[in-house]
Amino acid sequence: MINTTSTATTEGSVVAVLGASGKTGQAVTAALVSRGLGVRGLGRADLAAPGGLRAALSGCAALYLLAPNMHPDEVGYTGGALEAASAAGVTKVVYHSVATPFAPSMPHHLAKAHSEDLVRRSGLDWTILQPGAYLQNFLPALRAEPPALTVPYAVDLPFGFADLADVGAMAAEILAAPDGHSGATYEVAGPALATVRDVASAAGRVLGREVECRRTDAGEWASGPGATLPARERDWLLRMFDHYDHYGLPVGGRGVRAVLGRDPLPLDDILRRDL
Ligand SMILES: NC(=O)c1ccc[n+]([C@@H]2O[C@H](COP(=O)([O-])OP(=O)(O)OC[C@H]3O[C@@H](n4cnc5c(N)ncnc54)[C@H](OP(=O)(O)O)[C@@H]3O)[C@@H](O)[C@H]2O)c1
């Protein structure tokens, strides 16, 4: 358990972040702290002992609930966290879902559709965020030498890429000023649909050099970068790439304006900030 206490914190305003050490958890934690909320970062150690999560949530007013990436049983994980939150007296939960959760070809999306149902029937005061694929997923490849985007799916299909900074800012706004967000589900994405090729072009403008954009074969990915993954995770990712290869993952960006009162940043602005 990691306590990040800020000056304006009172015990009642502490927000627990489950999975705080990960990519999403860090973005959410940083945004909550900058809004003056106390954060209790929780991770695997808090889940290990029976009753561990309930004890770790004691005294927290709210829970930011995100499941580990590609968890084998996200529905069970979410259900357990909701039960622990209720038992610990937590009243508000923000569930970190995904855009297009009901996509039966992608097990990790479908698990989030089922988990959303648990959240909505939990009896807690809930809000759900549904981010598109994070634009930040591309940063390691864009920081490499030479910068290049090589993906095992179509590079000319539409996506609604989410800015992790918006995920954090929306979580903080909802948890710091919860009025009006009860029972709401918000998508998180950029101001316009974009392709992977658009991301490479934007990165090229920001970096002032050409950024190659290439679709690789899924089999090549599986025997290359994907080879070190456990078989189930590799299979689930291959199913996701196949979905992306046929449909992309289009997501609208109006949810950002609904919560933050401003539009999400365009690709160039995010990449200029992050690269
Ligand atoms: N990546 C995207 O583009 C995207 C888009 C939309 C939604 N999402 C969703 O966002 C969520 C978080 O993704 P992420 O990339 O931020 O995850 P991440 O970086 O992999 O972090 C996951 C967190 O969960 C913890 N964890 C890992 N395995 C665990 C286990 N078996 N039991 C308990 N805790 C465990 C990790 O702790 P340790 O430090 O101990 O490993 C870490 O704090 C996922 O549900 C994902 O589906 C991702």
Give the topology.
Layout: E1 2-4, E2 14-18, H1 23-34, E3 38-42, H2 44-48, H3 52-57, E4 62-65, H4 74-88, E5 92-96, H5 107-120, E6 125-131, H6 139-143, E7 148-151, H7 164-176, E8 184-188, H8 196-207, E9 212-215, H9 218-223, H10 231-247, H11 254-260, H12 267-274
Helix pairs in contact: 1-7, 4-5, 8-12
Bound molecules: NADP nicotinamide-adenine-dinucleotide phosphate.
NADP nicotinamide-adenine-dinucleotide phosphate binds at residues 19-25, 43-44, 47, 66-69, 96, 98, 108, 131, 133-134, 137.
Which CATH first-tier class of one domain would you pick? Alpha Beta
CATH superfamily of one domain: NAD(P)-binding Rossmann-like Domain
Cα gyration radius (Å): 19 Å
Globally, the shape reads: globular
Structure description:
- There is one protein chain.
- Helix content is 44%, strand content 15%.
- The protein is built from twelve helices and nine strands.
- It has helices spanning 23-34, 44-48, 52-57, 74-88, 107-120, 139-143, 164-176, 196-207, 218-223, 231-247, 254-260, 267-274; strands at residues 2-4, 14-18, 38-42, 62-65, 92-96, 125-131, 148-151, 184-188, 212-215.
- The strands form two sheets. It has a seven-stranded mixed β-sheet, with helices on both faces.
- Residues 4-12 have low confidence and may be disordered.
- NADP nicotinamide-adenine-dinucleotide phosphate (NAP) binds at residues 19-25, 43-44, 47, 66-69, 96, 98, 108, 131, 133-134, 137.
- NADP nicotinamide-adenine-dinucleotide phosphate binds next to helix 1 and helix 2.
Give the gist of this structure.
By secondary structure, this protein is of the alpha/beta class. The chain has helices at 23-34, 44-48, 52-57, 74-88, 107-120, 139-143, 164-176, 196-207, 218-223, 231-247, 254-260, 267-274, and strands at residues 2-4, 14-18, 38-42, 62-65, 92-96, 125-131, 148-151, 184-188, 212-215.
